[in-house]
Amino acid sequence: MSDANKLTSKEVVDITRSTNYGTWRFQRNWNPLHIVDAKDCTIVDGAGKEYLDFSSQLMCTNLGHKNPAVVASIAAQAEQLAYAMPGYATTARAELSKLLLEVLPAGLNKFFFTTSGTDANEAAFKIARMFTGKSKIIARYRSYHGSTSGSIAATGDPRRWPMEPIGGKQHGVIFAPETNCYRCPIRHTYPACGIACADYLEHMIRNESDVAAVLVEPIVGTNGVIVPPDEYMPKLRRICDETGVLLIADEVMAGWGRTGEWFAMDHWNVTPDILTTAKGITSAYVPLGLCATSAKIGAFFEDHYFAHGHTYEAHPMTLAPAVATIHEMQRLGLVERAAELAPYVERKLQELKAKHPSIGDVRGKGLFWAVELVKNRATREPFNDYTDKIAGKPLVVDQIAGKCMADGVIIQAWVSHFVIAPPLIVTLAEIDRGIDTLERYLAIADALVEADVEPLVELATTSSATSDS
Ligand SMILES: Cc1ncc(COP(=O)(O)O)c(C=O)c1O
Prior knowledge:
This protein is an alpha/beta fold and 469 residues long. It folds into two domains: 3-66 and 333-451, Aspartate Aminotransferase, domain 1, CATH 3.90.1150; 68-332, 3-Layer(aba) Sandwich (Aspartate Aminotransferase, domain 2), CATH 3.40.640.10. Helix content is 38%, strand content 15%. It has 16 helices and 15 strands. The strands form three sheets. Strands 4-10-9-8-7-5-6 form a seven-stranded mixed beta sheet, with helices on both faces. A hairpin with a 2-residue loop joins strand 14 (412-414) and strand 15 (417-420). Helix 14 packs across helix 15 (428-446). The chain is globular and about 60 Å long. Pyridoxal-5'-phosphate binds next to helix 5.
């Protein structure tokens, strides 16, 4: 196309805005940024302005942008074999399956490929129900598992509400309190609680009939980068084993080195019966999801009908870039890098907390951190809650994220916290720039803090039970 016919940036935005839906929002104030290029941790808009991608887009571009090996793998696969129906074997499929056996928690060795995180979860629910012959899934309130019918029904956060009762009730999902040591839903305090949230979950299983599986984000993502205490996951594994209920770990966001291990479950050496993932599996260059199951579940389907499939299951164009992504992560040592950079990020964020009364908590692992804002550190009351979010009210975190963006740093904000999750190739200078930019605008929140805050000095030494140390 000649330059004369090329769309201007304004036209691109106007056409997109008027003809497409903006996700999870009121449409009226959607003003999408026109992105034209991206390399490593930097993205470029239509006016040539550069931005630091400090949350890896949607916590997914773990390798950074335009990794040459992954880009080349997409071109090579397109030339070789752009599509094959799921009933066929392909080289990309076999190569990826072999690599998955290397990197997934040991014991997960039978795979179903999807094209997103939500349909990886849909597959997990169907597999769990077919395998157990039971129907209920116990999920947790502070969670997000995807937007399609089953996954949104299993989502604890209010993105589920517009879909109820269709989504919530028909799919046999019930909700347990999450583990959240900063804001415990059952008002206990770690470690004196003895992980009462897991005991409550066991109580639910034992008092319900027909429970097929418990579904957890091992480290809750969008809903606050909530890291459970170390005892939680082994205890949950034991409860599931004793009650004959499957454990499903949704690692769509927490997987692929993000937390300093290949998978978050590796932090506790716990293997779930089913692990779902997506996002970082191809560094989000192409849409791929995975539902990985144990050998026991795999064996069951040798003689039982596997009632699931998609036209795009095991699509070669999605699998080849996953092979390249894993090779690149291994070559660059990115899982180790995320673990090595964690103390640096934690120290910087704790310093931020010491200076800014609006920060209630910082927590995370690897290169996956939340900075949570509160009106009042003593009461831990946030500036905004979910009802503000779904009512489309202006949020304090959005105001700050908007200022950061104007200064060339993109940080994801969600209700009352920021998610710090840069690509795993991020440099120290980029970490400094991202956190310094956030700091510049925290004054907006500090000014709204209620007067009766606890003294800063005392709080600076108080780290959440869920933080990495
Ligand atoms: C933990 C978790 N599960 C599932 C999903 C859904 O994945 P997708 O958007 O690829 O459908 C997400 C998306 O953010 C997620 O964070």
